[in-house]
Specification:
The protein is an alpha/beta fold. It is built from 15 helices and 13 strands. The protein is globular, with a radius of gyration of 20 Å.
């Protein structure tokens, strides 16, 4: 049901319409609100819709654009925000009954930056409860369905943000990513998303899952749209923001030639448990890139299992620390599966956490060496197709029987290193801090995929 008002329309396309007069913010927001109402029973992408606030903001944006006031590529563009990110005066529930009716007094920093850039926040999107799950089907407001097949998961935890973009309800949405919560739903719903390098986008006003690993990310229909959102949230200059409104522009302007790219392809047992369809798609992408001149070279990742262990250990202990009081005083308000995971996480010994933190510092300090000789790494974002809604213990392809393990298998280990990742059908992993370069490479790959 990918047929909303922005189906097939990119952020740059919306920006162009707003500036050439073929659309205005008030008209766009009206279409969004109508489309969300129609789609909500089918996919449940939204928790809260701010119809009045969005229309007021749209009227301001319309007046400003008419007077020649231009705040950048998101000015007048409707956007959605994950429901663990504070929005002043608008309910923020974390997908949990613990926070039913919670209305923050202030915007999170990323929301303040969106509003300052002229973006129009139309509502809050469904999240796996407390962002603690990759399936996106455990929330107080119910499961979020994949708009490309409503019988299947949208992925999590930023399920509603990915689903809203994939359904064409908004051209851009904000999510968060700790172990894969932007990348997984982006891949399952067929959109583009970025987990930035740790620290590039502020997390002030974002409810934490694991303070050592949390990031705020962006989802859109194409790489240029993600770049435009990333630039605003990361506080990039207005000049740089404007460059991304040009059709085909990436975060830093020009993208590298495909023939100049050296791409590492992680190999080994950890990366080879793929569903046949996923394997075929990845093989086809690699072959297309190689035919066009990219140097694609297998690379070993001998510590994939250790990196995943570090992720699970650190995330588990920090999540329990955040939720300990709620687990003690009102356990009945949790989704039973989320509570069960937290209770299991509480069994991780403190000494394991301390050792994992020390090792985290070591692997992050040495993360750059992994990219020596490579511009990016390329691998499947998730090793399986979108599992059926509610599936837990079933054969979902590639020899996987646990959707949670399968969905996190190729994302969690890179989260430990703290650098950026961006799925474009597949997942591109760049060196720490090289978000702009990663977006530029992703744009080059996107063009190669779209070409003949």
């Amino acid at each position: 049901m990918a047929g909303g008002p922005f189906a097939g329309l990119t952020v740059s396309g919306v920006a162009a319409q707003l500036r050439d007069g073929t659309a205005d913010p008030v008209e766009l927001v009206g279409r969004v609100l109508e489309a969300v109402r129609a789609a909500q029973p089918a996919i449940n992408a939204f928790v809260t819709v701010d119809a009045d606030g969005a229309m007021r903001a749209a009227a301001v944006a319309k007046d400003e654009l008419a007077r020649g006031v231009d705040r950048g590529p998101l000015h007048g563009v409707p956007v959605a925000v994950k429901d663990i990110v504070d929005t002043a005066g608008l309910a923020t529930t974390m997908g949990s009954r613990h926070f039913a009716g919670n209305v923050p007094p202030r915007d999170a920093e990323v929301v303040a930056r969106l509003r300052a850039a002229g973006a129009i926040v139309v509502g809050k999107t469904t999240t796996h409860e407390f962002a603690y799950g990759p399936t996106g089907d455990r929330a107080a407001n119910g499961p979020c369905a994949n708009p490309r097949d409503r019988r299947r998961m949208a992925g999590g935890s930023s399920a509603g943000s990915a689903a809203a973009v994939a359904a064409g309800l908004v051209p851009l949405a904000v999510g968060t990513d700790t172990g894969g919560s932007v990348r997984i739903p982006a891949a399952l719903c067929g959109v583009v998303g970025i987990r930035p390098s740790v620290g590039r986008i502020p997390t002030d006003g974002v409810f934490p899952l694991s303070w050592s690993l949390d990031t705020v990310g962006v989802l859109a229909g194409d790489v240029a749209g993600v770049a435009a959102g990333w630039q605003v949230l990361a506080g990039a200059s207005r000049c740089a923001q404007r460059s991304s409104t040009r059709r085909g522009a990436a975060a830093t302007g020009s993208s590298p030639e495909l023939g100049a790219l050296r791409i590492g392809l992680p190999a080994g047992e950890w990366f080879e448990r793929l569903d046949d369809t996923v394997r075929g798609g990845l093989d086809e992408l690699v072959a297309r890139l190689a035919r066009r001149g990219a140097r694609v070279v297998p690379v070993t990742v001998p510590d994939a299992e250790e990196l995943t262990y570090l992720y699970r250990t650190i995330q588990s202990v920090e999540a329990v620390s955040i939720h300990h009081d709620r687990m003690t005083t009102a356990p009945e308000l949790f989704d039973p599966e989320v509570l069960q995971r937290l209770q299991a996480a509480a069994e991780v010994p403190a000494r394991d956490y301390a050792r994992a933190l020390r090792r985290l510092d070591e692997v992050r300090a040495g993360a750059a060496y992994r990219f020596s000789g490579f511009d990016v790494l390329l691998l499947a974002t998730v090793p399986v197709l979108a599992p059926p809604l509610g599936a837990r213990d079933a054969d979902i392809g590639g020899g996987w029987t646990s959707p949670r393990d399968a969905l996190l298998a190729h994302t969690a280990l890179w989260s430990v290193l703290g650098r950026g990742e961006l799925p474009v059908g597949a997942q591109l992993v760049g060196p720490p801090g090289a978000d702009e370069e990663l977006l530029a490479v992703a744009h080059t790959v996107e063009l190669a995929v779209a070409g003949p």
